[in-house]
Amino acid sequence: MHLHAVWILSVSALLAAAAIAWVTRAYVRAGGYNRGAQMAGAAGAALAVLGVYMAVGSPSAPDQALAGRVAALEARVQAGGLEAVTPEELLAVLTRRAQADPASIEARLYSGLILEELDRDNEAARAFEAVLRRDGGHPRAMLELGRISARLNGPAHPATLDLFARAAELAPADPLPWFYQGLAASEQGRRLDAIRFWEGAQARFPRDDPRQSMIAQMLADARKLPKSTPPARS
User: Do the beta carbons of residue 185 and residue 213 sit within 8 Å?
Assistant: First the structure.
């Protein structure tokens, strides 16, 4: 297996794990249900796949030529022996990748997602900012910075609202910027904005998404806000 193919494999596996964690955490922090057994099992399965990658550049691996690590990796894959990894080990690997490739966006993005899961928001923010320095129009990095700002500064903070608005512009079909802007508008009592954002989130989430019931309730609550409250944002 070529080293570049190993990296592609690792990115694909990490994306699966990060996507599960990202969506689950978004819902939990927004007031949804707690992590269930099925979601935990799915995340565990995705992380198990990452054992394929950990032989390359693992902090605990014996000091040997990279080619030797790749050969050992191939043997383990053929034998079906996938090893579980800790987030800290994965971060170490991604840090090495970022150092080896200063232009890499993926290593920094996934590092930020993992750091968020570890509640290391300041470090995560720096990782996402590093992504945006390399790609100023990266919607996920923009959204994650918005979520961090919501936790640190509050959902209605001007900086938070600006990040979510920019994320919505970069990824118009993504429901999460609408979801978080709806939270902020409801918190501030901005009736028309709240209705618009909740309707936008409702239209963008799949019909069978479990968050739909929460959104429907938030939309109903928004419609009960005083009608005299003008919209604060265009």
Answer: no
Go through the domains of the chain in sequence order and give each one's CATH number.
Answer: 137-234 (1.25.40.10)
- Phi, psi at residue 28, to the nearest 5°? -60, -45
- Per-residue pLDDT tens for 22-36? 444 544 444 433 333
Indicate the length of the chain as a whole number: 234
Q: What angle do CA 41, 42, 48 make, to 5 degrees?
A: 85
Q: Tell me, what's the pLDDT at 59?
A: 39
Q: What distance in Å separates the CA atoms of residue 143 and residue 34, rounded to the nearest whole number?
A: 22
